[in-house]
Amino acid sequence: MFLEGLMHGRGVYTWTDGLKYEGEFFTNFPMGHGIYTWPDGSHYEGQVYKAIRHGTGVHVSSDQLVSYAGEWYMGTRHGKGAIYYNAEGTSWYEGEWRGNRKEGWGVQRFPSGNIYEGQWKNNKFHGEGRMRWLSSNEEYMGQWENGIQNGPGTHTWFLKRVAGSQYSLRNEYIGNFVSGARHGQGRYYYANGAMYDGQWRNNKKHGAGKFIFKNGRIYIGEFVEDQIAEHPNFQYDRVNTPDLSGIRTRSPICGESSPVVCGIPSLSGSYIELDIASLLNTVPEDERSEEQKQVEYGVLRNLSMLRKTYKFYSSLGNDNCFDNTFLMTRLQFWRFLKDCRFHHYGLTLCDMDRILADSSDPEEVHSPYATMLLRTFLTNIIYLAHHITRADSPDKKLSLVDCFSRLMTQNISPYASTIKGYLFSDAQKTEHVMFYIDKCWDIYKTYCKKNTSAPFEPTMTMRHFIWMMRDLRILNDDLNVMKTVDILAEDDPSVRDGNEINLELELTFLEFLEVLIGCAITYVTDDLLQETIHQLLQGEQRADTASDSNASTDLSSHHQDLLTPSKSDGGTEEKEPIIAVKTMEKRSPCLLSHTPRKTQKRKGTGKWFQQVDVFFQKIFFPAYEKAEQVKAEIPRNRARQVEQARLLQIREEEEARLKAQRAEEETKRREQMELEKAAAMLEAVQAADDQADDKKNGPEPAPAKEDAPVPPSTTGTKVTPTTGKRKKK
Predict the structure, then answer these.
(1) Helix axis angle, 509-523 relative to 437-447, nearest 10°?
(2) Is the dihedral of CA 20, 23, 29, 32 positive or negative?
(3) pLDDT tens digits for range 273-298
(4) Residues 6 or more apart whose Cβ sits within 8 Å of residue 641
(5) Is there a contact between 415 and 491 (Cβ–Cβ < 8 Å)?
(6) Do residues 95 and 110 touch, judged by C-beta distance below 8 A?
(7) Distance (Å) of CA 37 to CA 9, 438, 563
(8) What is the DSSP letter of 356?
(9) Cα–Cα distance between 323 and 160 in angstroms, integer?
(10) pLDDT tens-digit profile of 81-120?
(11) How many other β-carbons are positioned within 10 Å of the β-carbon of residue 506?
(12) What is residue 239's predicted lDDT score, i.e. its pLDDT?
């Protein structure tokens, strides 16, 4: 297409060397959306400005292996973008660019599977970042400089355990690094329990330090070249203590093999350490030994099943465990209790937390992040069995082993590992929701109220939850109070008793989170979901239109020839006129494509995932942030009101002072006027007295004067007062 002799509109331009451009033109310039194809087979599709890649676009190399999709600036990768180095997509970088260089924040996955996430400068790790060497089970998190560990950081060497192990085994160094080596002050934790805290030089203990052996003995003194300088008065255990000089702080050199580490077997045997001393104190002293033995036998009879249960629940939401370690959290323990219907005996999960609480910190009583070992898991079951079964028993004289056995038969055996609720029922959904868990935990803590009874920990009731939803203005016709109560009562029979509703029941964070998920599915209807997606697409179109408009306003008014070919940044023959266009990938209608980077990597694009994303990102979190802003403004408003009242008081006091001053000045002025008036009257009286005295003394005789001649009259016979009557002749 042409306009007034100029290439204008859509068209195809081919250079003599074979480079071809197909797309939009504006007054002889490739401008807008277009496709460049080079003779070697590489191509670019995206936005073009004055024949230069500028905006967003996709470039694919001639061998179809390397592809970049993202932002461009004047022919270079600049802004946010992702580059893939192989066809399988297993080696890639996603993050910020500047002048064809990785600079800013970004994530790179190497062909070996190793991943770096952090700051970059001039294509190298620089600043704060985390490197995970999956091939050698190592991880470093800390400062980098020009691609090398430099500054404070933490390097961890994970020792792979057997499947199902609950114990984490690792060597870990926390301290200073210089040019990739442990150098300066640092602390090293050994997998066998030993620890060194002191000075380092070139990856070796050197200088003053403290070494705590695995048997608890402590040596404090000098170290030279990774050895104790002096001989302590006890034998130094070098057999089971790893040699630090052989542990690297960087990725192993290509070709080196990682040492083979034998796994430590999991807990087994006829003896299990159970901490049930407080329960045994309720038994007569002569029966305690037998009672403890029977409890241990009861646990051993069910140990295989309980261990499988522990492993099952401790792996929920933990499919990609880095070191194959399974350690149950309280969040998973709550799910176990609800699945096994422990809360059907008049106890809430919060009540059970208080029964099992062993922390002096009230904030930790209901923390979802608290962990427990297998023996703690077994001990907790015994304690809860004692409280639940004895309270339900008429005589309340059941032995501990009877309580445990009854709970195993009635609750754990038939219901364990049958997941209910919204959170853990599907692994993919669990992974999706886990991205919101930290923010939800902060909100939960914000709306908790301090308990009136010991240990006075903050908790939330169902009534508080409904008040929270009302205060955040989330309740509507689709999600009203009764539907919220229905969601609360789905997995708790204590909420409803006929027509009666009990909203004084406490909610743990698990229940809080699952109720939010239920509210998300109810609140985000199909109409709201489509409306949200439509708004997002409209926003993108407006942004693209604004970008194109800004580019068009910079066009030159002079006609210029098309630019000639030049070398691209990748070394391929291509023309300088290249740029960014819209990505070749079709935009997904899923909201996930508009969320932050970490959220975009999540799996699942179905309706359920969209509803959860819309609710948390567009409804719940913004409503909470707005409420917090309003809450933060309250003290500022009060401070402003106090300041305004103080200023008003000062102003009123100043006005009163000025008014009094003016009144005083007016009074003085009037008094002055009265004095002046009185003085004037006094002078007048004095003058009158002087005149009277003059009259009394008589006037002095006037001297004689000659008669003046009378001028002749010009008025005829008219008589004037001064001439008198004229005499007749």
Answers:
(1) 110
(2) negative
(3) 778 888 888 888 888 888 888 888 88
(4) none
(5) no
(6) no
(7) 19, 47, 15
(8) H
(9) 6
(10) 999 998 888 899 999 999 999 999 999 999 888 999 999 9
(11) 19
(12) 38
A 10 A CB-CB count for 557 gives: 5
DSSP state of 699: P
How far, CA to CA in Å, does 396 sit from each of 287, 309, 344, 436, 503? 17, 29, 18, 44, 30
Strands 573-575 and 565-567: antiparallel
Which letter does DSSP use for residue 592 in this model?
A: G
Measured between alpha carbons, how far is 98 from 189 in angstroms, rounded to an integer?
40
Least confident of 11-15, 367-371, 529-533: 529-533
What are the distances in angstroms from CA 375 to CA 175, 213, 266, 382?
33, 25, 12, 11
| Cα 525 from Cα 639, distance rounded (Å) | 42
Cα–Cα dist 262/525, whole Å = 54
Give the relative orientation of helices 330-339 and 303-314 as an angle to the nearest 10 degrees.
120
- Region of residue 547 (left: phi > 0; alpha: psi -120 to 50; beta: else): alpha
Cα–Cα distance, 136 to 248 (Å, whole number): 10
Q: How far apart are CA 50 and CA 32, in angstroms?
A: 9
The one-letter amino acid code at 238 reads: R
Q: Is the dihedral of CA 172, 174, 177, 182 positive or negative?
A: negative
Interacting residues of 37 by C-beta distance below 8 A, sequence separation 6+: 19, 20, 21, 22, 43
* Angle in degrees, CA 155, 442, 590, rounded to 5: 85
In what helix (H) or strand (E) does residue 676 lie, and over which residues does it extend? helix 621-697
Q: What are the phi and psi torsion angles at 300 (to 5°)?
A: -65, -35
Helices (H), 393-480: 400-407, 413-415, 427-433, 437-447, 462-471
Check if the beta carbon of residue 357 is closer than 8 Å to that of residue 455: yes
Residue 491 in this model has a pLDDT that exceeds 70:
yes
Q: What is the CA radius of gyration of the chain?
A: 46
Distance (Å, rounded) from C-alpha 83 to C-alpha 110? 12
- Side-chain-side CA neighbours of 413 within 13 Å: the count stands at 11
Give the single-character DSSP code of 323: T
Please identify which residue in the block is written with the tokens 């998300």.
520
Name 59's bridge partners.
44, 68
Cβ-based neighbour number of residue 494 at 10 Å? 14
Nearest residue to 193 (alpha-carbon basis) of 173, 223, 176, 170: 170
- The torsion defined by the Cα of 223, 225, 229 and 235, in degrees rounded to 10, comes to 90
**Do the beta carbons of residue 7 and residue 28 sit within 8 Å?**
yes
